[in-house]
Design a protein that fits this description.
Elements lengths: L10 H13 L4 H17 L3 H23 L14 E6 L8 H10 L6 E5 L6 E5 L5 E6 L5 H11 L3 H4 L1
Parallel strand pairs: 1-2
Antiparallel strand pairs: 1-3, 3-4
Length: 165
């Protein structure tokens, strides 16, 4: 019996890869378990059909995880978490590259009295969520968010000032 060793890749991933090469079939369980290894192998050995399958699988997993916290009626506990305030941290020099964030700061920020703006050199735009004691609890990058997404997120996640006083 011959063996094919591919350094850094688990045996199960190599098995799934070889199976896909010969039959264009895969087991869902194996795909989920080895998707990143299979994606690397698909790039290394130029197998575009496997690459598409892996990317599709990763996209579905990300979309599914993402929708857990923003779906109406979600029973995911993270969707129910609210915070006493937030810090919008951004580099002042890079603001020119983020017109949506500039628009939020100039026109919408006053709707959220518990949200503070903090300018930090070379910091990508992010929202730092704060608990009742002002401690950092969650950080979310907002580089590609539109103004309305920032508004929706803060409306759901930041308690109104009267509730925290």
């Amino acid at each position: 019996m011959r063996y094919i060793k591919i350094p850094g890749v688990p045996h199960g991933a190599v098995y799934a890869f070889i199976r896909f090469l010969y039959s264009s079939c895969y087991e869902e369980e194996e795909l989920k378990k080895f998707v990143l290894h299979l994606l690397v192998l698909s790039h290394s050995y130029s197998i575009p059909s496997l690459r598409r399958v892996c990317i599709c699988s990763l996209e579905q997993e990300l979309i599914s995880d993402c929708k857990k916290c923003c779906t109406e009626g979600s029973d995911d506990s993270t969707s129910k978490i609210t915070y006493s305030g937030a810090i919008l941290e951004v580099c002042m020099r890079k603001l020119v590259f983020y017109p949506e964030i500039v628009g939020f700061i100039e026109e919408e920020k006053d709707k959220f009295p518990t949200v503070k703006i903090q300018y930090l050199f070379n910091s990508p735009p992010k929202l730092i969520m704060l608990d009742d004691d002002g401690q950092h609890k969650e950080t979310t990058r907002i580089d590609n968010w539109k103004r309305e997404h920032i508004l929706q997120f803060l409306q759901k996640k930041v308690q109104p000032k009267s509730a925290s006083s």
